[in-house]
Structure prediction request, 638 residues.
Amino acid sequence: MYDLVIRNGKVVDGTGAPAYDADIAVKGNRIVKIGKVTEGAREEVDATGKVVSPGFIDPHTHFDAQLLWDGCAKPALAHGVTTIVPGNCSLSLAPLKAKHRMKLVGMFNQIEEMPLKAFKEGVVWDWETFSEYITRIRKGLAINVAPLVGHSVIRLWVMNEAATERTATDAEIAEMQGVLRECLDAGAAGLSTSYVDMDEKLLPVPSRYADAREVEALASVLGEYGRVLQIVPEFYDSDLTIARLDQLAELSLKYNIPTTFSPLFMNADNVDAVNRVMARVDEQFARGARVWPQVQTRPIDISFSFSVPSLLFMRFPSWYRIMRFGTPEEIIAFFSDADNRKKLIPEVAPLQGLWPTLVLRHVETDANQKYVGKTLKEIAELRNTTPIEAMMDLSVEEGLEAHFLSAGMGHNDDAKVAGLLNHPHVHIGASDGGAHILSFSTYGDTGYLFSHFVRDLNLMTVELAVKKITSDTAAIWGIPDRGLLKEGMIADIAVFDLSTIARGEEKFVNDVPGDGHRYVRDSHGVDTVIVGGGIAWSEAEGYQDVRGEVLPGVREMAAA
Amino acid sequence: MPVAQLSRVRKSILPLIEDDWSSIANRELPDLSEKDGVSSLQSWNLHVYMRAAARMGTGSNDILPSDVIFIEPPLAHG
Prediction:
């Protein structure tokens, strides 16, 4: 008698090999048989007509906070994601001294657009060390977590306020190495750092005050464990990106570590630049370096309201500063003032072609519901004004709760994006899961991969798509015993219908602590998601078993 | 692939401790006067130089310890 059998599925095993028909039997948390299974099981899943694959691994997320109130990382798990990597971009929630909590919350708010209220009302701060944080999130964990530790946070821990003032001394660097070792011993999957992000005061984050010898010293510690270095390069400029990937390549070769950088977008105006970056990636791989660019599957869509500072306005100081630092009352007063508007409108002239195309997607008042779904061009015509004035008027009338959508802003040339996704040195990821929750949904990228690039456009095989988000990812991240459907492997499994899988419509929901909202997408076509041999989610029953683990686990596992 | 066989990319450095425009100009562009060297560096590194203009820098030294600093102009891409 098995614990679980998945019958009659089309097995796409994660190796890239052609799909084949088979049953899969599970005992405990391991796959024990693949083939014709005649014995019964305590639980059975009928996968007739469906694909059975390893569970998906999402290597770039910011679920650090959400895991404190939601061990499923909803709705990622329901999309077939069985392992997530939080702690990217130099930011993790540990190690963190009590006196630095609000500083870190400010950085998460600024960089990842996590609401302050969610931290205030959703987080009980009962940890300081990385080990204590891991203990904390293990309770009720339904999804596997391979957490990175953030460089900015380690710097804060060791240098306190000086972390954002100067380079570290030799003694401080040695202390940071010790802290990193403690984190890796406690189960961290690697280290993340950032060369672009700004803190809550719009000043560089702590990691940007690190010189090359500090980064190298930390990379040397990663080398002791064979763990990953993730960075955010200056992705807006290809020469800078290439300089960074060369820096990563040297560290990868010297310390024998995998490295990854994200994001890498393919836009209409940077095709040659991305091709240059990828040519350099190929050259560095030919040298033996491991420098994995992460590429997301979804196009860039951004939603925004004036109530939170949006990425869209980052280049326009007058707009961004009031949204970043103003109270709601101050923001409303600012945009109501006719003199201010005279200065504001020319500042955003570079986006003048954008405003008419924006779609109003959400308002609070009954009076303005009639405009929802219309473009600002259409609304402006109805209100006898200009699109940009209409945007400001609606924002003021709605107490800043007018939400606009700018769709298809980039990364939406299917053939070119598919070329990247198929590239052997591209790491599919960069979902940003759990972050930017008021700008776009960071869930369902795997559904989009299968529905759009595999099924609808036929630009990628299902076997390669599965391989890239399962066994390739496990191999890059040193996650043992997962990412393949093979006897003896841990049973992290996704069962989905390739003819119906999709990322779902983006919707605005009210499920964030502190009465907060976020954009999400419900999974479509995913039937069952198994983590550690237990059914963690099914379309029929919803969220169920809680068998998530912290990966790759304690040090002896990484050394094995 | 040996490092010598890597294709040519734009030359850059990572700053040494206490580096500023002048010290980098004197070290990396010795054939230029300090003034011309600094001016050239600033024009090739607008990602750093303009950060100060946007009031997002860090006091008197525009350069962060982690910055990539280009020591030549952009290459022509055919």
Observations:
- Residues 9 and 77 of chain B are 10 Å apart (CA to CA).
